[in-house]
Structure formats: structure tokens, C-alpha cells
Design a protein that fits this description.
Layout: H1 7-33, H2 36-62, H3 77-105, H4 114-140, H5 144-173, H6 178-205, H7 212-225, E1 231-240, E2 243-252, H8 258-275, E3 279-287
Parallel strand pairs: 2-3
Antiparallel strand pairs: 1-2
Keywords: Cell membrane, Membrane, Transmembrane, Transmembrane helix, Transport
GO cellular component, one term: plasma membrane
Pfam family, one: Cation_efflux
Length: 299
Amino acid sequence: MATWLDRRTMVALATIVVAFGVTGLKYVSYRLTGSVALYSDAIESIVNIATAFAALWAIRVSRKPADRQHQFGHHKAEYFSAVLEGVLIIVAALLIIREAWLGWNAPRLSADLSLGMLVNASAALINGVWALFLLRYGRRHRSPALVADGWHLVTDVFTSAGVLVGLLLVAATGLAWLDPALAVLVAINIVWSGWKVIRESVGGLMDHAVPPELETRIRETISRHAEGAIEVHDLRTRNAGRASFIEFHLVVPGAMTVTAAHVICDRLEAALAQVVDDAEVVIHVEPEGEAQHQGVLVL
């Protein structure tokens, strides 16, 4: 039985700690330099904190068992977290554009950027390592909230890299207007990142089917383990967070007993559970007169 501090919850809590640490480092780098571009990088990290808390909430809710009001479970809660993250990313971009406009009219760069840039680079390194971990862990455990957090941190790393390169150009050329211009480019990149997160999450809320490669594996598994049946048709799938719902019609000989048909269904459910994590399988048994002579070939 899962405890409150299961592994995904611990990862979400660790993400909050990392987000606070990285944001603190980036704010220090901004205060050392006065750079609008570094300010924009720090603002994006503040969003990381908010979204990390949202991911923690979503993971906690998604683990709740089905109840009378939510009879198919709470798996989709993580998609709401990911949508919220996309919205907050876009809000952060608007704040950055405002600060870039103020910086354009009143440049306030420090004469020495080196220390601030070094602090910011350290923050980016921490973000990069944690982003790779979140993406691998989130995909392995099929957590949309953790994957969305991971992609956001990847964007954050590229943003930090772009900011540092831009500040090197500012230091080399002495052109202070490059700093707010760079901040605007960061904002545009953040808006694109937010849009991608929202688009993918809405796809999950709209009951998007499992990926084609996984559907192929599902069909192959059904074909190998449906011995005794005549055919399988009307296969349908949908993702809901870490759960995958699989439904299909199983056609059996008309003279087959309910017990024998039930044995086939149990065998199929067990086989699919080995192929698809958190699979929820619904099988509708039909007599041979309902055969459509299409669908999944039974070996």
C-alpha cells in the first residue's frame, strides 16, 4: 500500500527544494549585475517554484483511489497541474517584457558582470541535472506533472545559456541595449514553452489515445493471448495520467461457457498488465454471430 511519501511525492518535494535554491542563486546574480536578462531568468525560476507546488498537489490527488464521485479514479489531476504550469509560464513572460521595456529606457548594468554570470551558470547546471532526472523518472512512471516540470527546466537551462552568451556580447561590445533585447527574446522563448505544455496537457484531458507504438504492442499481446476466441474488434485506448484505459470486444464461440470466456478475459488482462503499466482493461464478450471479421487477428 502506498504511503504519503511515495517515490513520486518525494521527487515532487525535492523539485520544490531545488526550485527555491536555483531561484535564490539567480536572484543573487541579478542583484550583482542589475541585468534585465538575468532578472528575466530569475522570474522564470519563481514560476518553477509555483509549478513545483502544483505538481506536488496534482500527484497527491492523482494517487487517490476511485470513489463515488470519481468512479474512474483521479488520474487526470496531473494534467491540470501541467495546464497551470503553461499559464504561469506565459504570465512570467509578460512580466519579463515589462521589465525589459523599463530596462530599455533606463539601462542599469553593472560594470563587472563576471561574478553574477558565474552564479547564474551554477544555477543553470543544477537545473540541467535535475531536468534530466525529472524527464527520465516522469516518463518511466508516466507522470505528466513531472514530465512537464522537466521540460520547463530544460527550457530554463537553454534560457540561462542564451542569457549568459548575450551578456558576454554586452561585456565585449559595451552595448547596454543588448541586455533588454535579450530579455525579450527570452520572453518569446518562454511563451513558446508554455504553449507546448498547455497543448500537450489539453490532449490528455481530451482522452488522447496511447502512442502508436504502444497500441501496436497492445494488439500483438491480445493476438498472442486470446487463444480460444474468434476475433477481437473495436479496440479503443485512452490515456489518463499514468493510467491507460483499454477497451475491446471479444468474440467467442456461441457454445462457449461463461466460465471458459472468463478464463480468456483473465489471461488477456494479465498479459496486458505486463505490457502496459497501470492498465485498466474492459472486455465486452460477444457470441460469434457478432463477428465483424476485422480488428485484431487471434493467433
